Amino acid sequence: MLQALDYLTCNGVIHRDVKPANILYTPLESAGSRFLYQLMDFGLCNSIDAARSIVGSPMYQAPEMQSQAGARQTCKVDIWSLFVTVAFALNVNQYMSRMLNLPAECVEVALQAARAPELQTIQDMTEIDPSKRPSAAQMLVKCYNGQGLTTPRNEIPIYPEDTLPMGFPTGFPSPQPPPCLAYVSPPAMLNAHGMGTDTDNGLQVPQRQIGAPNRTTSALGARSRPLPPTDSKRGPTQHGFPACLLGNGESPVHPG
Predict the structure, then answer these.
(1) How far apart are CA 162 and CA 132, in angstroms?
(2) Other CB atoms within 10 Å distance of the CB of residue 200
(3) Least confident of 91-95, 134-138, 157-161
(4) Longest dimension (CA), the chain
C-alpha cells in the first residue's frame, strides 16, 4: 500500500478514502504466506491542488480533514488512513469492535493504537501535524529499505520538512543511478503498483477483499479531454490526472 500511495503522491493525487473495504488482496503462490495488495475505489480522489472537501469514512479521516473544512489537503491524509487501516486489520486494542462516530474519538483511538507495541514501527504515521507526518516514500525507506519507491531516493527528506536543522542534508544519498525502468501497458502498471480496478474496463479483480464489500470505481477514467480540476464528491470524474491514470499512455513500473 505504501508503494501505491507513493506512486499517487508522485503524480499529485490524493486517494482520500483509504480503508479496509478499499483494499483487495490475493495470495502470491510462489511466496508462501505473502499477498499482493491493491488499492481500489478512486471515486473520492482528487489532485493536490484541488482537494478541499471533507470526504471519506470518519473513522479513517486524518485530523486535518475533520477540523479544517476548506483547507488545502496533502497526501499525508492517506498516511493517517493507512495507519488506521493496519490497526483495524490487526484488531489492535479491539479496534474492530469500536463504534466511532465523533472526530475526537476517532483520533484518540488511533493515537492509543499507535502506542501499542506491535505498531511502534509505524506510530509516526499518526502525527497530528501533517508536516511532521512521514510520507509514503519515507515509510518505504524506513520499513522496506526503499523497495518499490516511485519518488527518487535523493528527493526524500530524512526528517519532516519543518524539523530540518539549518544546513542538514535534505535527502538520502544516491551513489548509484536508478535501475532501468520497464514500460508496460496501463493494466499491468496498475497491478504492479498495487492499484486495482473493476471489470468494466476488462481488468481482472482479485476475489478476496479486506473489510465489507464496497463499490469499485475505475482508476482509468474516460479518454476524453480532462476538465479543469474540481472537488466534486461523487460526480463524474473531472480531475486533471496524469495520463498514466487516465489510460492514455504508458507508465514506468518500479521493482518490488
Answers:
(1) 7
(2) 10
(3) 157-161
(4) 52
| Total tally of structural domains belonging to the chain | 1
**0.85 surpassed by pTM:** no
Q: Which domain holds residue 125?
A: 2-253
Question: For residue 233, what is the domain's CATH number?
Answer: 1.10.510.10
Q: Using an 8 Å Cβ cutoff, are 197 and 205 in contact?
A: yes
Residues 6+ apart with CB under 8 A from 202: 187
Is the Cβ–Cβ distance between 186 and 250 less than 8 Å?
yes
Residue for grid cell 542538514: 168
Span of 12-26, 72-86, 147-161 with lowest mean pLDDT: 147-161
Q: Distance between CA 175 and CA 224 in Å, rounded?
A: 42
Neighbours of 71 (CB within 10 A): 12
